[in-house]
Amino acid sequence: WQGHSVILLVPDFTGPCPVQNQLMHSSDGQGYSPSVPGSYSHQMPAKVPPHQASGQYNYSGSQNVSQLNNFQGPGQTLNRPPVAPFSGSPVQQTGPGPQVLPPALPNSAAISSAGGFPPGASPPVLSNWQYGQTPVSQPGGSQTSHLAQGTGTGSAQPPSSLSGNTNPPGSYQYAASPGGPPLQNSYMKPGSAPPPVTQPLTPLHPPSRPPLGPPPVGGPPLIRPSTLRATVPQQFILTLCLPLATPHPSPAPPNLKMNRSVGYSYPALPPGYQNTSPPGAPGVQTSALQYPDGSKHFHQPALGTNHLTASMAGLNLQQEGLKPVNLLQERNILPTTLLKPPVPNLHEEIQKLNCNPELFRCTLTNIPQTQALLNKAKLPLGLLLHPFKDLSQLPVVTSSTIVRCRSCRTYINPFVSFLDQRRWKCNLCYRVNDVPEEFMYNPVTRVYGEPHKRPEVQNATIEFMAPSEYMLRPPQPPVYLFVFDVSHNAIETGYLNTVCQTLLDNLDLLPGNTRTKIGFITFDSTIHFYSLQEGLSQPQMLIVSDIEDVFIPMPENLLVNLNENKELIQDLLKTLPQMFTKSLETQSALGPALQAAFKLMSPTGGRISVFQTQLPSVGMGALKSREEPNQRATAKDIHLTPSTDFYKKLALDCSGQQVAVDLFLLSGQYSDLASLGCISRYSAGSVYYYQSYHHKHNPVQVEKLQKELKRYLTRKIGFEAVMRIRCTKGLSIHTFHGNFFVRSTDLLSLPNVNPDAGYAVQMSVEESLTDMQVVSFQSALLYTSSKGERRIRVHTMCLPVVTTLSDVYLGADVQAITGLLANMAVDRSVSATLSDARDALVNAVIDSLSAYRSSVLSIQQPGLMAPHSLRLFPLYVLALLKQKAFQTGTTARLDERIFTMCQVKNQPLVYLMLMTHPSLYRVDNLTDEGALNINDRTIPQPPILQLSVEKLSRDGAYLMDAGSVMFLWIGKNCGQNFISQVLGVPNYGSIPQNMTHLPELETAESIRTISFISWLREQRPFFPILYIVKDDSPLKSSFLQNMIEDRTESALSYYEFLLHIQQQVNK
Ligand SMILES: [Zn+2]
Q1: Which Gene3D superfamilies does UniProt cross-reference here (predicted)?
Q2: How far is the CA of 939 from the centre of ligand 1 (A)?
Q3: Among residues 703, 702, 704, 706, which one has the least CA distance to residue 694?
Q4: How far is the CA of 408 from the centre of ligand 1 (A)?
Q5: What is the mean pLDDT of residues 256-267?
Q6: How far is it, in rounded angstroms, from Cα 871 to Cα 863?
Q7: How far is the CA of 188 from the centre of ligand 1 (A)?
Q8: Nearest 5°: phi and psi at 208?
Q9: CA distances in angstroms from 64 to 15, 68, 935, listed in the order given
């Protein structure tokens, strides 16, 4: 993340804007105005502020009143629950006595309500994907826009098929525009005046120009000449923005000096500006302001020799990219360093400003001009996003005016064009907008009259402090509710010690401020609340045994201010693990506990963290075991769909009240993650899974939980968030992947957003992109920070449009394609069958390589030819087929498979790729050659090896990094030096069988090895366990299973797979 300077403009500014916003002046006095185009008026559901004067909860403002008709007000509280004074002694047993879980029932009965596709009744499914069109059957794992939409091929999709459940249509439509299709791209409330979307744009263009044609005259070509071909008008220009050369007003540096004027210049500053304070620059000292006098020109990137060289370089790159690779001949195609994403073929001045591919990535960095061309390429078009990633440098802008397109609400960005100093043209809808007065002043350069040098047009990633029109209620406080399974089974695992201790250790690091609230619920067959009321000498436990009709006793003291009640909270965390040690209660009332948690959180919104160790057995949401171990290998009839829609419905209720649920499943037994996971998926939560967690039997899992929980508790969090992804007119987004709920056409509801979540979307080319040289994509994430600020994080990416198939292949991003296909394959597994999904993955390779062979290659050669950009495609798809989510013929447990599918859906691409195709390094001969130096640490960078036992030598030691797990394989004849200097044991035979840690030794070898492994671990939000594997180790098979290129019992080797593909391609 380099190349962007930090422009921190009053970063922590939280008070009212010193410069009164014009929009606010025109508002109706309630802090925002629904009729003002600048408002996000329906982005948050209308909500009742917490603590109504009446003491009653009033849900009249939300759309899900009917869901809550069982809700009892607090007036009944004291009549019903037996209230036991908390004493730290064994809990009062009010539920039924210990019971044995019923034996697993045959699965046929369990799925009746799932509404999915029962085995044998699947709709006919094509074995390949129709890219750019809505899938044949609605996938269960992703969400398409489910409201009527004016554009998009998904419009025929009925709302009720959102996830194949049985909800009546309309039950969960949170859009604020009931009674009619929402205006596309409109933020208007129903009844308010429509924005000027439909105004014809033609008057703003010269009559000869097509309405949506390229921006007008002047400037250098945006795209490098090598791809421009003769068709690009010479006068084409995208933007007049230059990167900031210096933060001071000064002439452009020589190398950027214009050699061509755009044909107009600006008049001198009006005299009135010379000595007045510039508008809208809070935090900038006026005394330091200087206005250079005289007229200004827009400086253009020069097309000098440097650029010519760059173009030639691009040409070479292009030829390299087009060079076909015969995969059957070239065996060493895996790069020795991590594969870098392709660089879009844009003019370097534009590319310099483009969004970091770690945040925003497209499967095709050359966008096909038409859907027909996209169809021909047989590759999926889509975006992969990591929108809330932790960034070391993030420009934050505090400004009373956030400049957005009046028509499509796009945020001004580096890829807009300035027609002149007072007008800018939107790069998504091409509307010409006025530049607001405030925007004329650049607080970074302190120069007036340089709107194109504002940070908003110099940074593809930027964060705005949102003014009050972006709020429908005051920003919520951070609220954290922890829900703990304390059944006998849970206590047996010993997890509560780890969790409570980690929470105690990190209590002061929870993101928040003086408003932070916290609360706790525990449950077995009954639900236990904890009053942490100020003045109590110890926490008070309240037991609710009526799980059929859950109510909240004493609602006001269950979620309390963290700072003001810290001692009571610490007391509770210290005692909780001991409180239930004698419990014999085996039942689990997870569903009712979640209902209680939802009710408790509804007035504010916030985060629920639920820890569960078994299959829920009583009350709403009780589940029956559906796993049949003997069927694991067949890949048929496995239960990937939820067996009840209880968890999804509850999640949607949570989403409507800005509550997200994160699930920590710590279980040695089947817990039906397919059903339970819905609570997190639709509420924008996360799922963590610790298989066979046990504090004594599985100590590495304890360390993993500690480390990951620490990250979870202390990482950044955004509350009451919504995300919208926009793209240039002509492109259309139709399917979304990730954990969220699609609230209206393209608005993702994210009650919580965290920096470790990834998202993907599929797109199609709705209207031909004729006359367009580039298209842009913009994601905008509106959220409330833990400090109570409303912020908007915006990422914008610009990509060139191409007209030929070879250019489409040239720009293919094979990792992004693999990631998107993995998401699509999860959906296919759920909506159809696992084998359908596997077939579709294989066909994706066959179809694209066939199309390449028949339509691009001029000379037919023997072998299996692939474009250079796709040379790793068959390998990555084979890796997906061998990955836990999609593999067959293994003993992968059902919950493990489902969890891997959750990861595919929710992880940023970089982790998904590591999980799919691990990195293998030889580590017994690490050197400092080519090492990284970070903070006085030397980190060796060994080359990445192919995943084949052929690459292993018995006298070496190899590290396999598979993302959430690492294996250190020690060859039988591994050098004595490594064994003693790194492992700290005298010989191979004395390496312990279950070794999972490297001793920290004072040897150069040990320091290098540990430094490398720690560096790998530091770069991810989860903690990979390191297993040290010997030849006779039981984990050897897990290690070998990741050898993607080798043959396994049930899967082809890479070479066999290539032969299979070749056979199909040549058909
Ligand atoms: Zn626009």
Answers
A1: beta-sandwich domain of Sec23/24, Sec23/Sec24 helical domain, Severin, von Willebrand factor, type A domain, Zn-finger domain of Sec23/24
A2: 47
A3: 702
A4: 4
A5: 30
A6: 13
A7: 15
A8: -80, -15
A9: 34, 7, 53
Residue 526: is its pLDDT beyond 90?
yes
> Counting Cβ atoms within 10 Å, is residue 200 exposed (0-12), middle (13-18) or buried (19+)?
exposed
Q: Is 425 helix (H, G, I), strand (E, B) or coil?
A: strand
User: Where do we find the tokens 């509560």?
Assistant: 496
Residues 6+ apart with CB under 8 A from 613: 485, 487, 489, 490, 493, 495, 588, 665, 666, 667, 671, 693
pLDDT digits (tens, 9 = 90+) for 711-722: 999 999 999 999
Distance 427 CA to ligand 1 centre (A): 7
- Nearest Cα to Cα of residue 551 among 71, 84, 75, 64: 71
Distance, in Å, from the CA atom of 118 to the CA atom of 690, rounded to the nearest integer, reads 29
The pLDDT assigned to 743 comes to 86
Give Cα 126 to chain centroid, integer Å: 28
pLDDT, mean of residues 638-648: 91
CB 803 within 8 A of CB 373: yes
Per-residue pLDDT, averaged over 326-341, amounts to 93
How much distance in Å is there from the Cα of 428 to the middle of ligand 1?
5
- Residues 861, 511: Cα–Cα separation, whole Å: 60
Residue with tokens 């069988």: 993
- What are 19-28's pLDDT values in tens digits? 333 322 322 3
Sequence-separated (6 or more) residues with CB below 8 Å from residue 171? 652
Amino acid at 573: L
Distance 425 CA to ligand 1 centre (A): 8
For residue 522, the surrounding DSSP H or E stretch is strand 517-523
Lowest mean pLDDT among 157-171, 339-353, 869-883, 1002-1016: 157-171
3-state helix, strand, coil in the chain (%, to 5): 30, 15, 55
Q: What string of DSSP letters covers 625-677? A: ----GGGGGG-SS---S-S-SHHHHHHHHHHHTTEEEEEEEEESS---HHHHT
* Helix (DSSP H) and strand (DSSP E) numbers for the chain: 23, 36
- Distance, CA 728 to ligand 1 centroid (Å)? 8
Structure tokens given for 166: 């049985």
pLDDT tens for each residue of 13-50? 233 333 333 322 322 323 222 232 333 333 333 333 33
Q: Reading across the β-sheet that carries 1025-1029, which strands appear in turn?
A: 944-945, 919-922, 957-961, 965-970, 1025-1029
Distance 726 CA to ligand 1 centre (A): 10
pLDDT of amino acid 442: 87
In this prediction, residue 1048 carries a pLDDT of: 85
Q: What is the pLDDT of residue 809?
A: 96
Instruction: For residue 406, report the distance from its CA to the centre of ligand 1, in Å.
Output: 7
Spatial neighbors of 966 by CB under 8 A, at least 6 apart, are 959, 960, 1013, 1016, 1024, 1025, 1026, 1027
CA of 405 from ligand 1 middle (Å) equals 5
C-alpha 749 to ligand 1 mean position (Å): 22
**Cα–Cα nearest to 501, from 708, 706, 712:** 706
Centre of ligand 1 to C-alpha 426, Å, is 5
CA of 416 to the centre of ligand 1 (A): 10
- CA distance linking residue 719 with residue 605, whole number of Å: 8
* Cα 232 to middle of ligand 1, angstroms: 23
* pLDDT per residue as tens digits for the range 850-864: 999 999 988 878 899
Q: How many residues does this entry show for the chain?
A: 1067
Q: Is the pTM of this model over 0.90?
A: no
Q: pLDDT digits over 435-493, tens only?
A: 999 999 888 888 898 898 999 999 999 999 998 888 888 999 999 999 999 999 999 99
Whole-number Å distance between alpha carbons of 295 and 308: 30
Neighbours of 800 (CB within 10 A): 24
Q: What is the largest CA-CA distance in the chain?
A: 88
With H, G, I as helix, E, B as strand and everything else as coil, classify residue 916. helix
Check residues 313 and 519 and name the one with the higher pLDDT: 519
What is the overall mean pLDDT for the chain? Answer: 76
Across the range 310-322, mean pLDDT stands at 48
